[in-house]
Amino acid sequence: MKISKIMHRDVKIVGPNETLRDAAVVMKKLDVGVLPVGEHDKLVGMITDRDIAIRGIAEGKGPDAKARDVMSHEVKYCFEDEDVDHVAENMAELQVRRLPVLNRDKRLVGIVSLGDLATQGSLPKTARALHGISQPGGQRNQSHAA
Amino acid sequence: MKEFDIGALPVVDGDELVGVVTDRDLVIRGVEQGADPVSAPVSDAMTRHIVACHEEASIDEAVSLMAQERVRRLVVVNGGRELAGIISLSDLARIEDSRIDLSAAALRVIFDADGNGEDPCTRRPDRRPRSRAAGRDFARVCSEASY
Fold first, then answer.
1. What residues make up the domain containing A77?
2. In chain A, which ranges are E strands?
3. Which of A34, A47, A77, B17 is deepest in the core (most CB within 10 A)?
């Protein structure tokens, strides 16, 4: 099964010049902890609630600081025509819970989570992915995936 | 949180456990409201409803409580209801000789409640538990009122 069959197409993004408060408002409204940062239809970063806490609040940055000041520039992603099982394994390896989905023109077309894989994909692989992200020393979110 | 690379901290007032604050709480209740990170008190952002288990509880029981309450971490209290520790799903995943069906329980915890990868040891107020802790003595669901 292709990722495009199970991904969420309705992806809310924030702009790099929007404020931390703007991002927090969206995170609260959508009940999510990570948002893609997009500029001119391109994915330029990811911002998580933890980024805001650790790179924002802990550094004394206020709610008016810009998303670009705390976002991760390095973004892990998958392509919409990749196989679900393959992406699940990649997520386990990368120890991330969510991945942006790009088309082959590198445009952001969706986002996929471990939850999507669990409910619509392959459970055993998802369990492995889950175990992967539960390893001690594992990265907490995709913003830190190296 | 940054120094120890953690996402949640118990909040105490003297010896009394009064809440838990997560990185997400700071963002969703602090930054979202435009709070000044230097001067806003933790109490403005913390969660007062604490999901706790007793330190004598078994691991099975802790996992059950996590699944039931849909949280990934539990505050652990002693007989005097004082803070004794915190236990997380990741802690449980590290137990090599686990006879617990952790994957099923964990999936239930994470994917029933999830959307976002945030990691609270507190239940979000807009989500009701599927049931109470059923009066079993190992597990106490400690409300604000009980502290």
1. 3-135
2. 34-39, 42-48, 78-79, 98-102, 108-113
3. A47
Question: What pLDDT is stored for residue B49 in this prediction?
Answer: 83
DSSP string computed for A97-131: SEEEEE-TT--EEEEEEHHHHHHHS-HHHHHHHHH
Domain-located, residue A11: yes
If one counts every other C-beta atom within 10 angstroms of the C-beta of residue B86, the result is 17
Q: Is residue A70 part of a domain?
A: yes
Query: Which residues of chain A make contact with B30, given a CB cutoff of 8 A?
Result: 57
Instruction: Let me know if residue A131 belongs to a domain.
Output: yes
CA-based nearest residue in chain B for residue A23: B32
Contact call for A63 and B114, based on CB within 8 A: no
Of B29, B22, B55, B17, nearest in space to B143 by CA? B17
- CATH number at A16 reads 3.10.580.10
Residue B120 pLDDT greater than 70, yes or no: no
- Domain count within chain A: 1
DSSP type of residue A61: -
- The predicted pLDDT at position B88 comes to 85
Q: Closest chain A residue to B38 measured between Cα atoms?
A: A60
User: What pairing do the DSSP bridges indicate for beta strands A98-102 and A78-79?
Assistant: parallel
Residues of A in contact with B93 (CB under 8 A): 131, 134-135
Contact call for A57 and B30, based on CB within 8 A = yes
Q: According to the model, what pLDDT value does residue A128 have?
A: 60
The model's pTM is 0.71
CB contact under 8 A, A54 and B117: no
| pLDDT given for residue B143 in this prediction | 29
pLDDT of A63 above 50: yes
Residue A143 in domain: no
**B64-80 pLDDT, tens digit each:** 888 888 788 899 988 87
